[in-house]
Every structure is written in structure tokens, then in C-alpha cells.
Amino acid sequence: MRDIEVVDPVFASYVLGNAGLKKLADGFRWTEGPVWFGDHNALLFNDLPRNRTMRWSEHGVERFREPSDYANGQARDRQGRLIACSHRRRCLLRIEHDGRVTELATHFEGRRLNSPNDVVVKSDGTIWFTDPVYGISTDYEGGKQASEIPEHVWRLEPDSGTLTPVISDVVGPNGLCFSPDERQLYVAATGVLLAADHTKSIQVCDVTAEGRLSEGRFFARVSPGFADGFRCDEHGNLWCSAGDGVHCLSPDGRLLGRIRVPAIVSNVAFGGLSRDRLFICASETLFSIFLNVRGAVWP
Ligand code: MG
Fold this sequence. Notes:
The chain is an all-beta fold.
């Protein structure tokens, strides 16, 4: 398949000879935040600069939530509710089952968050998210505003509202994802926006039983471009956004192969009935590809 490049032979077993990259919809400004809703057989994602959350299904694409408060990364919590990072409101949002919107985390010690970027929910219900300044650096993605707090990765206990900084030394914390056993947390460090910063990398931390993190260490660097969002498969491989498509990285950080995508990829999500379909948000377009590997299921 011309879309597929096998670097390590194991990657050949993850792809299908008769299922290539397929364009599902386009004409958006910048797609982000893919999250699969199996009970609706649909994917929610954001057209971030247009301030809309979209809903894709085999029947087509429609607007799901507008305004979206310039939502970026998204996830589902353990109760199946949509959790969204809002640039404009500088907070984490939860869309309740009846459609009401709840602000989950807005401030830390009296100072506003920057612009939550990406989010994952751990099996214990805690919500982990990154908070770089990207969303308040331009009017395009939510509106220029002053930063009041250094960039962090945060852990939120949603019942108590307790917000705890878990990483404070990453410049431009962006995508994040737990390993399938939740013993590792991967975090993209994308540095200063638009800077030719060769330190852009993915860091990995060990997660303790108490929800603390070890010091981060280098995991991998993707090229061309840099890692924005990523998700794990059932084997613990990372399917990672890159400048030329999606890169598949082994749990020890080696490039196994890549799916070439004709646009800059921002984020990915596994979905479909068997979790074997990778949805790819890439600039103005939503793509998918069926794989012979399934997305991770957390404990
Ligand atoms: Mg991101």
C-alpha cells in the first residue's frame, strides 16, 4: 500500500493489504480532539478555529456542539460523558448526559489556567490534562490572553475538584496518553509555538500507585514535524501524530512504521466496533484507516 511504510517487520502485521487511508470529510479549518462514542457509532472531533464540535458517522458529518468554546483535545470519562479542553474558557469542560456544560477546572490557587490542550481519563476516574499557552497565543484558536500560570500537566479529581500539578518542567506540554497498564504516562513536549526547536520530543514518566509521577525521561522524537496527540494500541505501541502522517512507536520508542497522510496530523483515536479503526485528524481533513491491531482498553 502506498500509504504504508514498514520500518520494522512487526508493523506489517498491524496493517491490512486491502484497507488504505480513506478521507471521511474535509473543508474544516483545523481538526482536533477525536474521541469515539461506540454507543452512537460515531466520532466526535473539533473544528477548533471554527468553534464547533463535529460528529461523524457513516451517515455523514453534522454539527454536534456550537459554540464549542474553542474545544481542543477530548476524552470520555468513566460515566461516558464528553470531557473537552476549552481554549476560550481556559478550562476543562464536561458535557453532561442532558447536554448541560460543567466547568471542571478553571483556576489553581486563584490564577486562571492557560488553555487546556489534551486530556485523558485514568481508570480511577481522575482526569489528566496538559495546559500550554498555545490556545491563548493567537486569536485563531480562541483569543489572545495573558498567561497567569506556568505550563503544567495537571491531575484533576473531579468529585472533589482537587487539582494537582504532576509535571512542571515540560515546555509546551501537548498530547498525553497512558500505557495500557497505566504504569507509564507519555507526554509530548512541543516547546515554543512555531519555533524551530529541536528539543521537541515525547517524554515518559512512571506512574506510582498514588498517582504521582517519576521524573520525565526522553522517550522518542518524531521527524518530520513533531508529536502533537497520540494514542496507545493493545500492545502498548504509540500511534503518534507527525509532520508526514502517523508514526507507530514501540513501547521502547523505536519507529515501527508509518502511515503517510497528505496533511499535518494533529491527533488520532481508535474506534469502530472492534476498536481497529484509527481516526486521524489532519489539518482540514478527517481520515480513517482500518488496522489489524486494536486500540488499548484501560483497566
Ligand atoms: Mg494538542
